[in-house]
TrEMBL record:
It comes from Panagrolaimus superbus. Gene3D superfamilies: YVTN repeat-like/Quinoprotein amine dehydrogenase. It holds the Pfam family WD40. This is Uncharacterized protein. Belongs to the IFT172 family. Its main location: other. InterPro entries: WD40/YVTN_repeat-like_dom_sf, WD40_repeat_dom_sf, WD40_rpt. GO terms for cellular component: axoneme; ciliary basal body; intraciliary transport particle B. It is found in: Cell projection, Cilium.
Length: 99
């Protein structure tokens, strides 16, 4: 097996577990990364940052410190992203076919 370094997606971060989860779309055109600051960062197939959005708790009264993101998964058609959290909720975001 030959491995090839393509590039760095995110700059290095201090501390433990700054990247909570990573998912690659089935069509290999999107990559999603969940960071410790509860944001989702989306990259295209050229490893260019395309979008960034914040996750949210099951109820806003609990605040941002009440959960962490545990998993990410793309739908089979690569148009939706499901985000699993420790507050027993799964959010599904529609990303669409193109940027």
């Amino acid at each position: 097996m030959k491995l090839k370094y393509l590039g760095t997606l995110l700059d290095s971060l201090d501390g433990v577990a700054k990247i909570r989860a990573i998912a690659v779309a089935p069509n290999n055109r999107k990559v999603a990364i969940a960071t410790a600051d509860l944001n989702i960062v989306l990259f295209d197939d050229k490893l260019q940052k395309k979008d960034k959005f914040a996750t949210k708790p099951v109820d806003s009264k609990f605040g941002k410190k009440s959960y962490i993101v545990t998993s990410l998964v793309f739908s089979p058609d690569s148009t939706k992203l499901a985000i699993g959290q420790t507050d027993n909720i799964v959010f599904v975001y529609r990303l669409g076919e193109s940027w």
